[in-house]
Design brief:
- The protein has 134 residues and is of the alpha+beta class.
- It has two domains: 80 residues, Winged helix-like DNA-binding domain superfamily/Winged helix DNA-binding domain (Arc Repressor Mutant, subunit A); 42 residues, no CATH class.
- It contains four helices and six strands.
- A three-stranded antiparallel β-sheet has the order 1-3-2. It has a three-stranded mixed β-sheet with strand order 5-4-6, with no helix packed on it.
- Helix 2 packs across helix 3 and helix 3 crosses helix 4.
- The structure holds zinc ion.
- The site of zinc ion has 6 residues, from loops.
- Zinc ion (ZN) binds next to loops.
Length: 134
């Protein structure tokens, strides 16, 4: 994605553009994808960037707070940042560590429980964990 394109997305999501944020966004928003913070840092390093680890983590947190990216927790220590924020579900392969999309309309719920009193549904997201067949 072009720099002006990223800047206009930042405007839309109320994110102040800094050189570091633009660098992180350029990696993550390049295409629909799921990347961990470490994978993003890796790509930044390969591209010659000197953005610190802490800055990358803070930037990703900010992006997800503003709704620019979606966090997908696959287990308590593994988190991916999803550049596609429309409602959809995921397969997670525990052997390969790969996260892939499932179209929203492919999962249907027949019997969701009543919501706790005084709450409204924000989202329902399914993570189907798979492993390679032996
Ligand atoms: Zn996804």
């Amino acid at each position: 994605m072009s720099l002006p394109g990223i800047r206009s997305i930042f405007d839309k999501f109320g994110i102040l553009a800094t050189p570091q944020r633009l660098e992180v966004a350029a990696v993550l928003l390049e295409k629909p994808q799921h990347l961990s913070a470490d994978q993003i840092i890796d790509r930044l390093r390969k591209g010659g960037s000197a953005v610190s680890k802490a800055t990358v983590y803070n930037t990703l947190k900010l992006f997800s707070e503003h709704g620019l990216v979606k966090e997908v927790m696959v287990d308590p220590i593994r988190k991916f940042y999803d550049s596609a924020t429309h409602p959809h579900h995921h397969f997670y392969n525990v052997d390969t560590g790969e996260l892939s999309d499932i179209a929203h309309e492919l999962v249907r719920f027949e019997n969701l429980p009543d919501l706790p009193q005084g709450t409204e549904r924000q989202s329902v997201e399914v993570l189907i964990k798979v492993r390679d067949q032996v």
